[in-house]
Amino acid sequence: MLATDATATDDKMKLEARVARSIRRRTGVVILRSDLSRLGSQAQLTRVLTKLVATGQLVRVGHGIYAKTRLNRFAGRPAPAATFESIAAEAFRRLGISVGPGALTREYNTGRSTQLPMVAVVTTGRRRITRRIQVGTKRVMYERANKDTP
Question: Which top-rank group of organisms is this from (predicted)?
């Protein structure tokens, strides 16, 4: 038996509602696509997540990584529900990637410099990472540790 257009629309609405409910119930700000994989197929989740990004309920951070939004009371538009740095840190933690502060941040934290780093730079150790983590125009940059660097 073929599904009618009305039933297909109802199924989409049900999936959107299930995905939205699952996202609301999660405690963290970062949502991984793999968290939602049990709810539907890849194509269905792509459509639903694209719609949620377009409506401002989510913001895309990277490949398979999304962040919750909240209404910015000053601008009246949706904005990420946390700071860029905390979103990036949570994304790395959820992905199982260990990173540390960059050289400039370490110098500032130890008091050897008074300049605040303007770009989010993380040290990946000897590991090579190419994953793009970006919210709006802010983007995480990577630096690899040399043999001499602790």
Answer: Bacteria
